[in-house]
Amino acid sequence: MNPAARKIERVYLTLTLGNTLATSFIWGINTLFLLDAGLSNLEAFAANAFFTAGMVLFEVPTGVVADSWGRRISFLLGTITLAVSTFLYYLLWQMSAPFLWWAVVSVLLGLGFTFFSGAVEAWLVDALRFSGYEGGLETVLGRGQMVSGVAMLAGSVAGGVIAQATSLGVPFLVRVGVLVAMFAVAFLLMRDVGFTPERSPHPLRATRTVLKASVDGGLKHPPVRYIMLAAPFTEGVGFYVFYALQPYLLQLFGDPRAYAVAGLAAAIVAGADIVGGWMAPRIRKLVRKRTTVLIASNVVSSLILVVLLFTSTFWLALVLLALWAVVGAAGTPVRQAYLNDMIASKQRATVLSFDSLMGSSGGVVVQPLLGRSADLYGYPASLAVSGVVQVLAAPFILLSRRQRSQADTASDLTATP
Q1: pLDDT for the residue 291
Q2: What is the model's pLDDT at position 415?
Q3: What's 191-258 look like in SS3?
Q4: Percentage with pLDDT > 90 across the chain
Q5: How many other C-beta atoms are found inside a 10 Å radius of the C-beta of residue 3?
Q6: Which pTM was predicted?
């Protein structure tokens, strides 16, 4: 990696570290926070579904903002929007507000995250190409996932400890403060490199142009389309399992107010991101096709969720959940690299945002249904159903594999469009 590429990587890792640290302060206690505000299981997961609905509504528009106005502007807008909506969440908790207001603010939280999704990854890939980097994307994306895992581990555990020492609302205020600091960091360090935004005097016409090109390079491109169609099953289940782990682990532990234990749910995922990010480029050296990694990751992690139905021991459940998270995390950089190697630079942020939209749409449907199954049959049964839903993604990954895209076997950035 040459000096220019190394500088780009450092900025990317800095943004990833700070942004993940900020957002993860509440991840370990979010479901408990909603339940403490007086919401039922159904309402709590419905609030999460409204969050993902916000992502569905705004993914493509914010992707167009990133491709038309710049990835830096998109990131800055994301930090401000997320900070404001997080503070509103805190106010709703203080007022024990009715569900309607939780739904509205959850949509705004989704808007904040959509400014990040697609934009940062698109910024990284284009900047690396411009700098002359010719290595594999899995290497840099894997490092990013490792840094994200470290930040998530620190933030989620700290959030649980802070909540136990103070109240469930304080981690939300900490998140607001760190997001404001990240706005300043991104303003100083982030520049659009290797990409020139096309700021048209006719924004609606420009939006239509970007959207059409994105559809042509996304849904109309078979290997990309099938990977996107797999996303609702994997991401929808991922959303649910992540948030269901908090009350599930507390139930197994036997102490409903052990918030630090609830933080283990996020800590498990964070640790898995670190291990998975380290494993991804090494697995690629051993496995010729990226889709082989994706199919294996999907099937194995689905089986683990089903096995949890028969587990009633806290520590055994922790081991199984850690294994589930590691298997999924090892496939994530591979999937990111596979998609990016099939997407053109001009529409990269919008196509990646559309992919995120597909995943979020699964969360809108899956989370309330699985939350209701937890109300009726308990968390172990709902996790087993999650495994069945998740494995439905495997046939779509197989269909993408059959398109024989060059990206399936690519090992360096020079293969990108």
Answers
A1: 92
A2: 46
A3: CCCCCCCCCCCCHHHHHHHHHHHHHHHCCCCHHHHHHHHHHHHHHHHHHHHHHHHHHHHHHHHCCCCC
A4: 30
A5: 8
A6: 0.71
